[in-house]
Write a structure and sequence with these properties.
The chain has nine helices and twelve strands. The protein is of the alpha/beta class.
């Protein structure tokens, strides 16, 4: 029997205040949301796998860098504490930083790839080829789409590059859901039978909010595609979730993410 994931630990690595139209295509101007910045720890054979890493804190705390990278008043990052959010979150759940054996990024946006610097030269990092190619393409367009090369252009990074759907660890499958970015990937997580089986489909930014999923609403943030392409990726994830009988979890929902966090942490305490 194939091994699955033994434990899931959701992390909140900050928040971002942004227009609702970033998450819902065509949402009225003037509506703002405060969305959580997600991370996930998955206990797999061999150690912990981290999905997404939050912000690069240097680009927020340094005044000059903040003006360059976070200068738009309607898009503001919010850090949860005075230190590195990932280190603080790990300490809170009692997991040692050195226990993380692999990292995967859903995509290279600044709120997901900013913590990769903490792992450069330490552990392998999983990414889709189309995503890395776009991020390293050498033109200014990625930065205009909040993909900051300073977060991931590091020769010490040990990239593990996929070109489509692939199993990246026992019980963890990366699913290409391009649209939000050229190589965005979502993740199917199969739980081990020893913890009751079942699993989850984590959309990350293929579907920010519950309403993206339930009403099949296009996301507002996309690169070089029409809105309908993002709806097709939501439908793809819904089909996977329905086939497996797993819940589909949106990436930035301010209600669903805290509820999932509390539910999983409560189930692991009892």
């Amino acid at each position: 029997m194939t091994a699955g994931v033994r434990r899931i630990v959701p992390l909140t690595l900050g928040w971002e205040e942004l227009p609702r139209s970033v998450s819902i295509y065509g949402a009225p101007a003037g509506e703002q949301l405060r969305e959580p910045v997600p991370g996930l720890l998955l206990e797999c054979d061999g150690g912990w796998l981290l999905l997404d890493t939050g912000f690069n804190t240097a680009l927020i705390r340094d005044p000059a860098l903040r003006r360059r990278y976070h200068g738009r008043p309607l898009f503001q990052p919010v850090l949860p504490g005075p230190g590195e959010p990932l280190e603080e979150a790990l300490a809170e759940v009692g997991i040692d930083f050195t226990d993380i054996h692999e990292v995967a990024v859903s995509h290279l946006h600044n709120d997901h790839a900013g913590g990769l610097k903490l792992f450069a030269g330490r552990v392998p990092m999983h990414v889709q080829k189309a995503e890395l190619d776009y991020g390293l393409s050498g033109h200014p367009e990625p930065e205009r789409h909040a993909i900051y090369r300073v977060d991931f252009d590091d020769p010490a990074i040990d990239w593990r590059i996929a070109a489509g759907d692939t199993e990246i660890a026992p019980g963890v499958t990366a699913v290409l859901t391009a649209g939000h970015t050229p190589g965005h990937q979502s993740f199917v997580v199969d739980l081990d039978e020893s913890v009751g089986g079942g699993g989850f489909v984590f959309a990350f930014d293929a579907a920010d909010l519950t309403e993206n999923i339930e009403s099949e609403l296009a996301i507002g943030g996309m690169i070089d595609v029409e809105p309908e392409v993002t709806v097709e990726q939501i439908r793809k994830l819904k089909r996977i979730a329905a086939t497996r009988g797993y819940p589909l979890i949106p990436g930035h929902d301010p209600v669903a993410w805290p509820a999932l966090t509390e539910s999983l942490l409560h189930s692991q305490r009892t």
